[in-house]
Amino acid sequence: MVSERGTNDFQSPMMDSVLNHLTCFQCHHGLRNPITLPCGHSVCSECLPTSHENYPCGFVTPQPCLTCPFPSCSFQYPSLSGVKLDVTLANISQICLQEIPQPQAQKPIDSDSSSPNPELPTLATILQPEFECQICYRILFEPLTTSCGHTFCKECLLRTTDHSSRCPTCRNAISFSQVRDQQTNHALSRLVELLFPKSLYQRKVLPAEVTEENEAVPILTGGLVFPDITYSLHIFQPAHRLLIRRCLLTTKKHFGIVTRGSSNALAEYGTLVQIIASQPLPDGRFLIQVKGLHKLRILESKNLDGYHSARVDLVEDAALVSEKEVECSSTEDMILAIKAFVNSIGKSHPQLLARLNQLYGPPPQAMIPFSHWASCVIPIDDQEKYKLLCVDSANLRLLMIVRWIETTRKRWGFVGCPVM
Which residue ranges does the record assign to the Lon N-terminal domain (predicted)? Predict the structure, then answer.
């Protein structure tokens, strides 16, 4: 491409490819004062389309409306007020059109790219500082340009909005929903593919700690949860929001929930859960539903971007301990005693029973899920409930609950079914 706006006439194929990506679709010249629209397309500031009256974005009455000039897009915007110069794209255009001499563009040196094309290494080296995210200082991955004109990796900017609603460069106001919904910068994305293929490949690979093929499991520190039970969670802490975003990118959507011990360290046992429903909120928080899958035991843990990642063993309940061995009544009698105790709570505190049913549902029929359900609904503190999670036998778990019921019944006069 030969630009009427540039002084250099580059003839090398690689430079031609780069300049083609820096061409305005409207005027077919090199980008001058580029503006990147929320749909990710970039045009010269003077080539912005004029507004017309339309019904964009669900408006009932006609509003001033701008339409993206790219035929494959045609996205409509109620307003582009406040959208500023794309600083990164402007800097790259300036370097390519005015500052790289032709002999240097053809000189072979080592590069990020493995391409045999000799002029690519020098181009990549000269342009690399402009393609570095100013949050992570790596090559831009899924580059997103804010309305104030600054470009960062999309994931980096999302993580920034977990802590602040300001642009990291100029402190202009930005929101999580704006970052989440905006499209990546198409011109910069294509240039990264062209100039930095190796770095792009490395950035596309999720960290090993957050992939399901790795042994490590992301750990959310929170309340006590049990297998077989469905929970509704409000995720608001910045590190936990990052954990959930990463978890939603995986196939299985698994993570662990572990409480903290007396010394504030991770407890030894927790529960592996699966996200079964999620609702992102405009400010970056999540409302999620999870189902407890397996009990887990922490073998080793480390900090990963503010949350824990751990190697774990999944622990299944062992064979049932014989009723003679533990000197207790039959399993059926223990289940009846627990149900009777829960019903007695409902007679004196019907609202509490309704709340328990809303949170944990009706009692399951199978013994192991029932033992987990009973562990949730029984009104004891979490330190005592944690002992129930550590037990590896369903009927021993039921026995511990029944013994607690007997102690409570004698102390407070609850009406229940004595089985001991």
Answer: 214-409
